[in-house]
Each structure stands twice: as C-alpha cells, then as structure tokens.
Recover the amino acids of this structure.
C-alpha cells in the first residue's frame, strides 16, 4: 500500500498555513502543523480541519514550536520525519518589523537557517524537501519592472532584509549540501482569512462595517502604493507544485497586474454599489461617497440603509500608517512558474475583492461578532470555499 506523504507546516495558524493544510489534507497527506503558545486561542483558521480529521484516521496534528527555538525544531523534525517542510512561519507584518527588527531577523532570517540546519544535522537531506516562503518585499525599491527571478533585490524594511537572508541561506544550503530547498517568491496574496491589519483586509472589513452602519470612517496610510494582489488559495497551490519538482529552484508567483491602494478601496465599495471620490492631497486627502446605488447595497447586505448618504467622508489619511521606507510599486512576472510548474491563478482582482467583501459582510452580520467586541472571529475555510 502506498504510504501517505508527511508534510510539516510551520506557521500553520496563519493565512497561508490554513489554505495549505486544507490543500494537502485533500491530497491525502498527513499534515503536522507547528503552532506557537499563545495566551488566547490562535487556531481559529484551522480548528475545523483538526476536528474534521479527528474522528477518522487522524491526519492532522499540531505541535507547539517556535522558529526561535532550535532544539525544539530539531526534536520535532526528528520525530515527524517529514517528506516536505513548508516554512511559512514569520513575523510577516512589514510595518511592525520597523518596531521589532531584532526579533524579525531572529524569527524570519535565522529561523529559516534553523530549519535547514535541523535537516542537515539529522542527515535527512535526501528525503526531506523544503519550501521557503520568500517574498516580493525582496525587490523593495524595484530595480526593474516587472520583477522576475533575475531582478536584483533591494529590500526596504527589516522584514525584507530578514527575508533576504532566508532567501540566500536557502540557496546556499541547496548548493553546498544538495538539499532540495526552494524559494517561492510570492507577491502579495490575500483572502477572507487575511490578517486584519494588512491593508486589503483592513479595507474589506471596514467596507462591510460601514455598509452595515457599524463604523463611520477608515484611517489609512499611503493610498498610492501599488501592489500585485492575488488570492491565497491560488498561491498555496504553487507551494505544493514547487515541492513536486525533481529539481529545487526559485520561482516568482504573481498575477502580473498592479493596483494602487486607492483603487482597491474603490473596487471594494463598488461591489456594494457605492462610488468613492477623493479630494485634497497628502494627509489632508479624504475619500467621500459620491454615489450610492441603494437597491444594490440593500440587496447585498439584506437590510434597509438609512444611515448612509452621498457626501459622507469615509476615507481619511493617518500618517501613523506611513512607513520609514516604503515599497512604492510591485508587479511580478510569473512566466517561469507558468511554464515549469504549470501554475496559473484562477482568481482575478475583482473576484478576490468580491470574495473578501462578501465574507466580511457575512462575518460582521453575525451576532457573535458584536458580542465579542468585533475582532476575534475568523471566517473558516469551509464557510468561504
Ligand atoms: P501570517 O498570516 O502572518 O502567518 C504567519 C504564521 O507564522 C502564523 O502562523 C504565526 O503564528 C507564525 N509565526 C510567527 N512568528 C513565529 C515564530 N517565531 N515561531 C513560530 N511561528 C511563528 O502570514 P501569511 O500571510 O500566511 O504568510 C505566510 C508566509 O509567507 C510568511 O512567512 C510571510 O512572511 C510569507 N509571505 C506572505 C505573503 C502574503 O502576501 N501573504 C507574500 C509573500 C510571502 P500566530 O498565528 O501565532 O501569529
Ligand atoms: O501593505 C499601504 C502600505 O501591510 C500594502 C505581507 O504579507 O505582502 C505583505 O506586505 C501597502 C503598503 O502589505 C495602510 O504602506 C496604506 O504600501 O497590506 P500591507 P505589505 O507591506 O505589502 C508582502 C508580499 C509580504 O511578504 C508581507 O509578509 O498598503 N497601506 N495604508 C497600508 N498598509 C497597512 N497595513 N495598513 C494601512 O492602513
């Protein structure tokens, strides 16, 4: 009988960890996820996967671990003997990395070394493949447009610099010790499970709350930053495909289309029949509701709307959200991934925006949301697939 493959996912409680665990379980893998100890529950994105796989032959396991703790990682990798390791754990917030640069370097940079070194130390380099979650933040102040696997890196944050170390140490262990270790250089990818402090989710949550009458305005930073946004569900497939290749390699994963933050806001409101107009500039800029299609809005949210009217100022700029050094524009060229991996995204930006806004409306309408203070509840994958 063919043995089930064993995958180890660090960062399983995060956005990508949840989608990847779901994908691999559906492919028949035994999945081990590493989670951090936390004073509150941090498994909201994956509890249903755990419960679903519990009564049958158990296929999904958690262990406590931290990327800053090598002995713990070595012990677990020795015990689990994974065929594939997906290293997704990271302090992944670019702005926060300016406040916690040393921790970010430790977890995101040296943490990757700890995984690679564990595999080398245990002598399992011929049986364990490694995926490293690299990022378009490596390109930072971009040296060419669009960015490919050959574009020189110029990171612009402690996060980007930590990930630069992780990228190169992965390449070095591949070349020095023959590890099957690959980098996926993923451009921004979002979903209903995206962390609430990343700009897309901050916007879609606020759009849902404003439409439902729970929130009056949204404060943001740089509205002109441009990102190449895809759907996390498409992007985790590329991680799996990268580890199915005979040879390890590095791949850019992107949609090839870039959009400004202000246009993402426009799309999110447009889905509900609301049009936004901007006036002023810099920190004085505001976005106001210029037109409202009440019949569309009321049909989608399922209630009468008396609290919104054209002219209301809802988008405001707060310099708190500016970064000391910004990444102005990202747009990737995923030709290599298309040609070698056969990877192609199913979602375009409009589909992504619709998925996120619709999910947040559903979530904000739940009574529990308000009862719990409005920030704890996560949608679960089975609700949004
Ligand atoms: P995410 O939602 O922030 O998830 C990060 C995961 O890492 C969470 O499970 C988190 O645990 C865990 N973690 C953080 N610090 C840790 C530590 N010291 N030890 C162990 N676990 C730790 O991030 P994501 O969006 O899923 O991204 C997954 C990976 O891809 C990250 O490495 C990120 O940097 C990278 N990436 C993301 C994007 C993107 O657009 N999403 C693009 C390129 C690359 P808690 O749940 O307890 O916080
Ligand atoms: O910012 C601007 C902000 O925090 C996007 C991570 O997953 O993708 C992510 O990093 C842009 C930036 O993502 C707000 O200045 C404006 O230009 O959603 P973000 P990010 O920094 O691109 C990469 C690929 C990763 O690897 C990271 O792990 O939006 N922006 N106003 C804002 N951003 C936030 N967060 N909040 C605002 O209010």
């Amino acid at each position: 009988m063919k043995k089930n493959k064993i995958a180890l996912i660090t960062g399983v409680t995060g956005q990508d960890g949840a989608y990847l665990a779901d994908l691999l379980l559906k492919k028949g893998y035994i999945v081990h996820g590493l989670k951090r100890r936390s004073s509150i529950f941090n498994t909201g994105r994956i509890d249903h996967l755990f419960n679903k796989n519990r009564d049958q032959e158990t296929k999904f396991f958690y262990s406590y671990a931290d990327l800053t703790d090598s002995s713990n990682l070595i012990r677990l990798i020795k015990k689990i003997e994974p065929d594939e390791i997906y290293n997704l754990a990271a302090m992944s917030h670019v702005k926060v990395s300016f406040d916690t640069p040393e921790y970010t370097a430790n977890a995101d940079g040296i943490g990757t070394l700890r995984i690679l070194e564990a595999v080398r130390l245990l002598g399992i380099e011929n049986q364990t493949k490694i995926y490293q979650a690299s990022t378009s933040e490596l390109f930072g102040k971009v040296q060419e447009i669009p960015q490919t696997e050959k574009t020189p890196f110029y990171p612009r944050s402690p996060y980007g610099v930590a990930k630069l170390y992780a990228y190169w140490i992965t390449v070095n262990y591949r070349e020095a010790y023959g590890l099957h270790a690959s980098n996926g250089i993923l451009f921004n990818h979002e979903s209903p499970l995206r962390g609430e402090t990343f700009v897309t989710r901050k916007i879609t949550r606020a759009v849902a709350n404003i439409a439902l009458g729970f929130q009056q305005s949204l404060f943001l930073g740089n509205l002109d930053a441009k990102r190449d946004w895809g759907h996390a569900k498409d992007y985790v497939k590329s991680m799996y495909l990268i580890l199915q290749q005979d040879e390890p390699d590095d791949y850019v994963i992107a949609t090839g289309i870039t959009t400004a933050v202000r246009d993402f806001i426009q799309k999110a409101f447009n889905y509900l029949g609301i049009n936004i107009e901007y006036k002023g500039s810099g920190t004085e800029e505001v976005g106001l509701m210029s037109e409202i299609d009440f019949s569309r809005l009321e049909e989608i949210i399922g209630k009468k709307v008396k609290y919104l009217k054209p002219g209301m100022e809802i988008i405001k700029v707060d310099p708190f959200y500016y970064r000391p050094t910004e990444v102005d524009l990202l747009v990737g060229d995923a030709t290599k991934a298309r040609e070698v991996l056969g990877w192609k995204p199913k979602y375009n930006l409009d589909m992504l925006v619709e998925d996120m806004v619709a999910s947040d409306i559903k979530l904000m309408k739940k009574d529990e949301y308000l009862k719990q203070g409005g920030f704890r509840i996560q949608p679960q994958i089975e609700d949004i697939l």
